[in-house]
Amino acid sequence: MAMAGSGVFGDLLEGEVYKYYSDGEWRKSSSGKSVAIINPTTRKPQYKVQACTQEEVNKVIDASKVAQKAWAKTPLWKRAELLHRAAVLLKEHKAPIAECLVKEIAKPAKDAVTEVVRSGDLVSYCAEEGVRILGAGKFLVSDSFPGNDRNKLCLASKVPLGVILAIPPFNYPVNLAVSKIAPALIAGNSIVLKPPTQGAVAALHMVHCFHLAGFPKGLISCVTGKGSEIGDFLTMHPGVNCISFTGGDTGIAISKKAGMIPLQMELGGKDACLILEDADIDLAAANVVKGGFSYSGQRCTAVKVVLVMESVADALVEKVNSKVAKMTVGPPEDNCDITPVVTESSANFIEGLVMDAKQKGAKFCQEYRREGNLIWPLLLDHVRADMRLAWEEPFGPVLPVIRITTVEEGIHHCNASNFGLQGCVFTKDINKAMMISDAMETGTVQINSAPARGPDHFPFQGLRDSGIGSQGITNSIEMMTKVKSTVINLPTPSFTMG
Ligand code: G3H
């Protein structure tokens, strides 16, 4: 079986440093420097990637501009054909890509494979959706607006934006990269990818699948390196025509510095799970566990606070605890439910939130336990609004429960958050659920299920500090285009009829 950095992926690696991808070739940076990627489980260096320079970024963007002009003129069906080919290659090479995800971000092995397969499906769907929505435009006539005759005909179609800068996060370095790359490409744009450091090697392998699919030189580039050297340089680069970013607070800084270009930003969440008195408690408990602890809570859509009606709180907490007790904790290679969090600083941050809750009197349902980056799953009951955990996202396997006495209290907590990504409500009363959905100020409300981004063609968006713009396949394709109109002005008077 092919391994990372070998077989068809052999070109990516020279010595022990992975190369970056520019103008259709794998290259070494002239900096002579590299960035080490620490394996979250062993806490030892696992891989190294090139520390690209600003000059190399300039070259990438120049090549990207040239390639985009030709690509925009490539027939839509041909663009789709190449994307379908890339999707097949991604799935064919799921094992070595998943291997990188396991080593770089400690994603459980099975979930790592799922991420790659999901990415292939996303790319195919994008190709299919693109040929349909980009193949149609609008035709308008002037006489519907007061004062106009029927002498102006407007043909409006969608044209590409140009060079798209894609910056995915560590938790889905492949899937949240292709969710930007595929819509950009089908719409006739070029792509400059800056992967997260943890996850960069998985992303480089994914990019190689696009290389093998035969996309034109320069159309896709992937630069790696230090944020301090090339981060601002990329996001403020005059050659970039759109930024699609998923990650944390850095996105807020980027949106303040970026020029007058479209931004698609997804910056995290504090998704609330509101559990009413009439909820199916078994269903709610199963979703609290899945939503709160899958990939050790390192998902922007994770359940990050449980708001449960006091009358059913004991029953819910008991059921959640019995499920938590059965969770396996350990290395991602063993497919454990809970694996080490991505970095030591993340683990320290999570620990800070736990200690704050301890000091302020939260009830620990399990003993707090940590070894290196591995934190055992922890449910904290009786959390109050003065505790940091009530508002901040741990991005780890730690879940606060706030007991409420009215539904309004729950909605108020949800809407008072800086974040507004998703929320969920558990009740058997669909009317109540709809009214709560209406009142919850979040991009999405799930009824009787934990928050989630997928299926990947669903709209996905956050309010307030959770971001701007809407994602999901269709919305991303639309967002990565602009409208171009051609107006045909007919002479007046026109032919008289009859
Ligand atoms: O971390 C942010 C992702 O968009 C969440 O995606 O709901 O599929 O885990 P997911």
Textual characterization of the structure:
- By secondary structure, the protein is an alpha/beta fold.
- It folds into two domains: 279 residues, 3-Layer(aba) Sandwich (Aldehyde Dehydrogenase, Chain A, domain 1), CATH 3.40.605; 176 residues, Aldehyde Dehydrogenase, Chain A, domain 2.
- The protein contains 14 helices and 28 strands.
- Glyceraldehyde-3-phosphate binds next to loops.
Query: Largest beta sheet, briefly?
Result: 7 strands, mixed
Structural class: alpha/beta
In CATH, the architecture of the largest domain is 3-Layer(aba) Sandwich
Q: What is the subunit arrangement here?
A: single chain
CATH domain class of the largest domain: Alpha Beta
Per CATH, the superfamily of the largest domain is Aldehyde Dehydrogenase, Chain A, domain 1
Tell me, briefly, the overall form.
globular
Count of individual helical segments: 14
Helix % is 25-40%
Low-confidence stretches: none
Biggest sheet strand order reads 16-19-20-15-14-22-23
Average pLDDT, all residues: 97
Radius of gyration: 24 Å
Might you state the CATH topology name of the largest domain?
Answer: Aldehyde Dehydrogenase, Chain A, domain 1
Which features characterize this protein?
alpha/beta, Aldehyde Dehydrogenase, Chain A, domain 1, 7-stranded mixed β-sheet, 38% helix, binds glyceraldehyde-3-phosphate
